[in-house]
Amino acid sequence: MFFSTVKMGAAIGSRKAVGSAAAGNGMSGAGLDDVGLADTDPTADDLAVRLRGVTKQYRRQTALKAVSLTLASGSITGLVGPNGAGKTTLLKLLAGLISPTDGSGSVFGHEFSPHRRAMVFVGLMPEHPAFIEYLSGAANLRAFAAIRNQIGEKEIADALAHVGLDANDRKPVRAYSQGMRQRLSLAQAIMEQPRLLLLDEPANGLDPHGVVMLRDVVKDMAAQGCTVVLSSHLLSEVETVSERVLLIDGGRILKDLSLDEAGSLEAVYLELIAEHVR
Amino acid sequence: MSGLFRALQHETVRLFRDPRWLGFCLIALLSAVLASGEVYAESANTGLAAGAFDVHAAASNNLMYLGYLLFTAFVFVVGDTVIADIVSGYADLVRTRHTSAHTWWFSKLFALVAGAFVAQALFLVLCLLVGVVFQKWALSAVPSAMAAAPIQMRRMMLFPFVAATENMAFRQVAVACYIAIGFSALAGLLVALSVRVTKRVLPVALAFLGLMADYVLVKVWDPWFVASPGVRLMEGIHARMEVGGEYLPLQSSLIYIFAMFVIAAVIGAWQIRRAEL
Known about the structure:
The structure holds two protein chains of two kinds. By secondary structure, chain A is an alpha/beta fold. Chain A is built from eight helices and ten strands. Chain B is mainly α. The two termini of chain B are 23 Å apart. At the A-B interface, strand 6 and helix 3 of A face helix 1 and helix 6 of B.
């Protein structure tokens, strides 16, 4: 294990503190500082992610607009929103693959800066995972693992077993089904025991057994102190696994809600998106 | 440093596992056979005995044709090394494991340089094999009668003048290295320029069109002679050849190629940063 286990109580406590917070977008409530999670917050040390007014502008499109957000260590947060809402951009920002155009933030205390590009303690499962097609699943993971050089064969085999794949299967990835590719992608994301696990549409192409496996993996990782952020169009899946959900549209966080307080996520989602469209 | 070393290793191994190298091998073999045919005809016409190294010497001196073919084949293999990863999403998985985007870019560039040297080594070996196996010529470091003959005795300008005392093995290995450096610089520039245009076919299309444009410009616009990448590559080999007195010195061509490589590295690093994978 490469990270210390964080007590879940503190994480859940932080979650409740931001349960009704909006994201500083002026649409539905207070910004970050207004809900007591500024630097002076006693639980601030347990924060995995802190974003302050982060904007991400592409050439002609603003993908994120002044997003403020905190995520507690060991928490599970769901991102939901329509296509193009900014979910993937937010995940890429947290992964260090892109930098904010404006605003500031940090991941585990590492501030965003023009030189901060990628986070070595992040596990990312992208929406469209790509592998070396002519290698087996295990060989692909070995190739990825060789870059950080933190884990060995045992960890790779464990990660594959965790997602229901066989480390001894020599079948090339090109022969994998969509579901198997998703499992392999999840395995590469978790194999190095990341402190922040980012999952972009992880349930895509998974069969019912795969969805159950995904739930188990997410909960296991969170139980070990890993902060999980997952983006999905499957509201029921997000509702089942997440403790907190961020509803995003147009680059803004429209609603930040704790699921034990919310009713039906679907009803809230449809109402908010409809309101935002109006 | 160990992170950079592992990145270099990762990208180099990936590049050499690419099945498209088979296509390069076929093109290289075709080029070697064509060059051996030229040497055979020259040998038959002049009555001068040829050697296996002459095949590589002739092919290397034919950069306007065989060289263009080989370069296009090389870019076909390595040109989309960055674009393909970005388009497929593989870059996301690799980049989160690197400490910086530049580490990733320089590991790509290193792999490309390694690929260029291996490609030229492969081509040299294929030329020798064709000379020895198909033409039954001797594999000797001593220059053949045809290689050492005065220019006037040759009907075709197949390969540059070779001093009778020269070691052909050393000479052709040096030529292969020189062309590998040139290929690295040119291919690196194409890769760097196409990073943000996510069309996988772009580098190889640029290579083909660029070489055609180079060929035409050399013919119709005299000042281009000094700037032409094709001429620079060829002139490096011609440098010791006294033909009409007009040639570009090897040193200036080396500086030209090295400068192009540095420019490619800088442009690539800048483009990768702007691309925000």
